Amino acid sequence: MTSEQASLKKISGHINEYDFAELISGEVNLGSPTDKKDVIDLQHRSHSVKGGTWWQIFLYARSRLLTNTIFRGLGNIADLMIQCIDAFPEDRNDYLADKQSAKIRLQEPMRLLKQEIEKPNIFPALLEKSLFNGGEVNYLSILPHTLPNTLSIAEKHFHVFSQRDVVDLLSTHLEIQNSRARNRHQMDAQKVIFRFNNRNLGEIEIRTDSPTHYREIKWRVHAPAIFGILTSNLESVTLANQQISVYGTARNQFSINVQAG
């Protein structure tokens, strides 16, 4: 790594991507902020690199859903997400003055969105689009939440999963529901909830918390729970450098040697 690259690594906020790239002799992909291809390996395959406790899978404004061709090809997903956004008035001050009306309007499209996502042909495609950019990304490479970004590269250990295994496992293990009110100040069906073993581990909701992030739809998941599903259902091998574990079908695809196919 050159001194210029090291400086960029420190200030970019993408230290895990740079550390992972160095460990596999790959390259960080300096694409657009929305590009999920974080690192390109020696086989010219791409990795989405994730760490931390919560992963933001997507955050879309209405305009993005109108123009995103892949999302618009997923059944009625894009249109239903737009309907959820449109439940809220364009002026945030109007929403703050009457939150109850917006929450009532949100219930029907959010219920329909849940029903659409849980269709067997839709949920795997939504996962592939959201996590792997419609198949453009080959691997999900994870630094567990127990290993913070601030560790030195020598102390980090990454876990590599294939696109196919991630989509197959999550689409068959996660239960999809609508949220339920927990007190008199809440209302049912304000979110789509993803559950496993009777625990919520992800949610799709409309952001209303600030003028900057208003009328945006967000999907986030609890990283340790997702990591647990993947690691408990797939066999792994640890590569020679002892800092990379490779799981499931990725064992036959990924290598830190350039000769691999």
Q: How does this structure look, described?
A:
The chain is an alpha+beta fold and 261 residues long. The protein has 9 helices and 12 strands. The strands form 2 sheets. Strands 1-2-3-5-6-12-11 form a 7-stranded mixed β-sheet, sandwiched between helices. A 5-stranded antiparallel β-sheet has the order 4-10-9-8-7. A hairpin with a 2-residue loop joins strand 8 (192-196) and strand 9. Residues 6-12 have low confidence and may be disordered.
Total domain units = 1
- Poorly predicted regions: 6-12
Total count of helical runs of at least 4 residues:
9
Helix/strand order, N-terminal first: HHEEEEHHHHHEEHEEEEHEE
Rg calculated over all Cα atoms:
20 Å
Count the beta strands.
12
The helix-and-strand class reads: alpha+beta
Amino- and carboxy-terminal Cα gap: 26 Å
Q: Percent of residues in helical segments?
A: 25-40%
Shape: elongated
Beta-strand residue fraction = 15-25%
Oligomer: single chain
Query: How can the largest sheet be summarized?
Result: 7 strands, mixed
Strand and helix layout:
Blueprint: H1 3-12, H2 15-23, E1 27-28, E2 39-40, E3 46-50, E4 54-61, H3 62-67, H4 77-86, H5 92-97, H6 99-117, H7 123-132, E5 139-142, E6 158-162, H8 163-173, E7 175-178, E8 192-196, E9 199-207, E10 216-222, H9 223-233, E11 236-238, E12 244-247
Parallel strand pairs: 3-5, 6-12
Antiparallel strand pairs: 1-2, 2-3, 4-10, 5-6, 7-8, 8-9, 9-10, 11-12
